[in-house]
Amino acid sequence: MLRALLLTLSVVTIAHAELCKPDAQNAFKVRISIKTALGDNAYAWDANEEYLFKAMVAFAMRRYSSNNTTQISNVLLCNVTDRVSFWFVVTDSSKNVTTVPGSEVEAAIRMNRNRINSAFLLSDKTLQFLKITSTLSPPVEPSTPVWLIVFGVVLCLIVAGIVFLIVSGIQKRKKKNKESTERENLEEKVEVTLENGIPCEALDLKAGHINGVFGADDERFTSL
Amino acid sequence: LSATPEIPKEDGRPKWDNKFQYILSCIGFAVGLGNVWRFPYLCQIHGGGAFLIPYFIALLFEGIPLLHLELALGQCLRKGSIGAWNTISPYLGGVGVGSWMVSVLVSLYYNTVLTWVMWYFINSFQEPLPWSVCPLNENRTGFNEECYESTAVNYFWYRKTLNITPDIAESGTIQWWLILCLATCWAVVYLCTIRGIETTGKAIYVTAIFPYLVLTIFLIQGLTLPGATDGLIYLFTPNLNTLKNPRVWLDAATQIFFSLSLAFGGLIAFASYNPTKNDCEKDAVTVAIVNSMTSLYASIPVFSVLGFKATTAYWDCLDRNIISIINEFDLPEESIMRQNYTSWISFLNSSYPEKIAGLKLKSCDLQEFLDQSVSGTGLAFIVFTQAIILMPGSQAWAILFFIMLFSLGLSSMFGNIEGVFTPLLELRIIPKSAPKELLSGIICLISFLVALCFTLGSGSYWIDIFDRYAGSVPLLVIAFFEVIGVMYIYKIKRFSKDVEWMTGRKLNLYWQITWRFISPLLLLIVFMAFVTLQMQKPPSYTAWNPKYEGFPMKEEKVYPPWVQAICVLLAAFPCVCVPLVALFHLVKQKRRSKDPSFVPPEVFSCQGANS
Q1: B8 pLDDT exceeds 50?
Q2: Where in this chain does the record put each Collectrin-like domain (chain A) (predicted)?
Q3: Which residues, other chains included, contact B308 with Cβ-Cβ below 8 Å and sequence gap of 6+?
Q4: CA distance B189 to B411
Q5: Residues of chain A neighbouring B180 (CB-CB closer than 8 A)
Q6: What is the pLDDT of residues B236-271, one digit of tens each?
Q7: Distance separating alpha carbons of residues B117 and B301, to the nearest angstrom
Q8: Domain boundary among A129, A163, A190
Q9: Integer Cα distance of B163 and B110 in angstroms
């Protein structure tokens, strides 16, 4: 009994070792940079984290193929280094000891990349699946480009300033013209009423002034 | 007659609200974009602190005397450039016409540079900044190829802003976004110069003082950045050996000359609005010294930021190498840090040389990054924008930086426009009853329409041409004739009497010597050296060509013959005005002298017109 168990175990281990090794068929290398992503909040990579990883890959395979055949034991990890980096394969329990084709695994991972990243608090750059490219998210573009809005505001301010200056200039000129014509009228009046230094209003043009040099004494002259 | 109080003789000429406005306008005119993006570059390539020696010698013997001459001239004659030179002697009228023409040409292309600044300004309100990320290509699998091969900053400048063509002969299409910004810039210029110095005098308070505030903020921020001290040490470490190279002296002389905005006619126009009894000597010295101090002051934050950028690039280079090594050897993270990088590299090189060679690591040298020197638009729109992305709160820094550049350029534009506006006003181009606003509106509108050709795909190549040919050689020629004209045709004795009357003290010997001998000689030498250097090789330019093998390096091309002809025209046209007008007057004089009723005009004197 014990011998049979040992035999099965050794077969399985050897099989595993055959299936999961660097550059094996359908195997992918994963590189994780926890300290770069989390800094002081970095967690240590231990067996529990490996278990979570296997669970996430199994989850991704289940979601992708929509059948519930993939188990955590189907995901094999090997060659874990201090980096942290390792290789993994997904075995197919339905067929004999074979691995799921790489294209399926790749598609499954791509579909669920976001979920896998968030489970580990990492991003596309810090949880790298070498050979699996990620689709880049398009940059957020608002419906109207922001610069047009700013431009509109700036232009409105400037046009308002120009209009204000032109209008105030016209008003000032009108006022100056009115003032200068008023002053001209005033000066004309003053000029017209000055005659020989004596204001004309003072002169009584009808009555006249008697010039005292001539004929102050009527009797001196002979009467006509 | 009415007894009105005795008012001083007014000729209806507008005047400055106060002396401070006038000084600020002159300083604003002199302090421009060149103080920020040319002076630090010259300091860097010509031996750091050692460059200050030829710079201050040039300031003393060329800058200050010429500046004093122009201010005294304008103040005494109380006319713009064309009117002033016509008054000194009709034969010298060409000098005024020449400087008027240079002002026109420079205004055209200078405002287009401000257009670019405005475009970057209105793009700075986004998060993330548009020049920090590359756009994706069509099928969203990677980044745009042109952007990926160069950098995001380069891509935004050459493609998104200029949409530059690979060759100057290819005009490309008009970029509508640049037209919008150009219209806005000319609207701003119109708003500020609408009534001449009445309005620029108010605007200058903001545009001349604001850059100093921003420079101070950048200074404080820059000094706190990592790597700033490396940049500053690199900038100011004097290397006295460079002084043996005559090119350094030539660059110092031309930098002082163009930095002070001499021979544009704008300074004459500004000074003509002064009361005649004003100390122009002190004004000249003040403006020149403030201009040079500003250059020095601006180079400190510029070089702190450049040092920061070089340090960051160096760290990035190291980090990339470290990641490659860690990934290759599967070492734990943070086992190799920047500090122990060199020891690790030597250890690994000795134990696994083939593996290390296979990684193709780039050699990271801080000195190499510091040596990458750029001047002009490259400094502002490529290098500085890249550094701003790395700073926290990049939008705020970008907005501040571009408003500062805009104010610097705008206050210089005021001087240029004044140099165009005042002579036209005096020549009575429009009837006297028409408002001044109309003339400034016409100037701005015509300039806008002509400057539209700078918004083409090849526009920036044309701006380089205008900058190199219209804004350089003619100024030297005009300044030379200015000094000669005043000293030997107007005669130094008359002029020194005029200056004495204006300043109230006797003319110092320093002015006499520099005006009569040193400055004209220096100008002649600089002019000859400048022209010789230009003639040494065929004029060429560097083009941005994505299809070039060495891309992202720029491709060196030679100007086609028709472009070379335009270059020569641009440089020669303002210069040729001087002899042409003199000839014209000679012919007119000969015809007039046959007329017996002709009376020769009175000899002009500063005091005579104003006593």
Answers
A1: no
A2: 24-224
A3: B222, B225, B226, B227, B228, B231, B387, B390
A4: 10
A5: 151, 155
A6: 888 888 888 888 998 999 999 889 999 999 999 999
A7: 19
A8: A129
A9: 19
Mean pLDDT calculated for residue range B172-192: 93
Domain annotation covers residue A135:
no
- Do A115 and A62 lie in one domain? The reply is yes
- Cα torsion angle, A55, A58, A62, A64, sign: positive
* A92 inside domain: yes
Pairwise CA distance, residues B520 & B510, whole Å: 14
B136 near A CB under 8 A = yes
Are residues A35 and A107 located together in one domain of the fold? yes
Reduced to 3 states (helix: H, G, I; strand: E, B; else coil), residue A75 is strand
Residues A19 and A114 in one domain: yes
Q: Is the pLDDT of residue A118 over 70?
A: yes
Residue A192 in domain:
no
Chain B residues closer than 8 Å to A136 by CB: 136, 140-143
Q: How confident is the model at residue A136 (pLDDT cuts 50, 70, 90)?
A: low
Print the domain residue range for A160. Answer: 141-178
Residues in chain A with CB shorter than 8 Å from the CB of B398 are: none
The neighbour count for residue B381, using CB atoms within 10 Å, is 27
Q: Give contacts of A34 with chain B, Cβ < 8 Å.
A: 333
Q: What is the average pLDDT across B132-142? A: 78
pTM: 0.84
- The per-residue pLDDT for range B503-545, each reduced to its tens digit, is 888 888 999 999 999 999 999 999 999 888 888 878 888 888 8
Backbone angles phi, psi at B210, to 5 degrees: -55, -45
A103 is written with which tokens?
């294209």
d(CA B421, CA B471): 19
How close B15 gets to chain A, by Cα (Å)?
17
Q: Strand pairing partners for A173? A: none
- The CATH number assigned to the domain holding A108 equals 3.30.70
Round to whole Å and give the CA distance between B546 and B553. 9
Residue A110's alpha-carbon distances to A115, A129, B132, B140, in angstroms, are 10, 10, 27, 15
Q: Is A184 a member of any domain?
A: no
CA B574 to chain centroid: 19
Contacts (Cβ under 8 Å, ≥6 apart) of B475:
B102, B257, B258, B262, B263, B264
Task: Say if CB B22 and CB B274 are below 8 A apart.
Answer: yes
pLDDT 10s digits, B588-611: 888 887 766 555 555 666 765 544
Same domain, A146 and A39: no
Q: How far is CA B324 from CA B312, B338, B358, B359, B363, in A?
A: 18, 13, 11, 7, 13
**Mean pLDDT for chain B overall:** 87
Instruction: Supply angle C-alpha B63, B66, B71, rounded to 5.
Output: 120
Q: Report pLDDT for B268.
A: 94
Residue A141 confidence class, pLDDT cut points 50, 70, 90:
low
Interface contact flag, A136 B141, Cβ < 8 Å: yes
Task: Find, in chain B, the residue whose alpha carbon is nearest to that of A34.
Answer: B333
Residue B517 to residue B375: CA distance in whole angstroms: 33
Are B184 and A154 within 8 A, CB to CB? yes
- Judged by CB atoms closer than 8 Å, whether chains meet at B333 and A33 is answered as yes
The number of domains in chain A is 2
The answer on A148 and A116 residing in a single domain is no
Considering CB atoms only, which of B118, B136, B326 is closest to A136? B136
A72 & A47 share domain:
yes
Considering the domain architecture, whether residues A145 and A80 belong to the same structural domain is answered as no
All structural domains of chain B: 19-537+553-593 (1.20.1740.10)
Q: Name the strand (E) or helix (H) holding B558.
A: strand B555-558
Separation between Cα atoms, residue B98 and residue B363, nearest integer Å? 53
Per the rule left: phi > 0, alpha: psi between -120 and 50, beta: everything else, A124 is alpha
Task: Identify whether residues A107 and A157 lie together within a single domain.
Answer: no
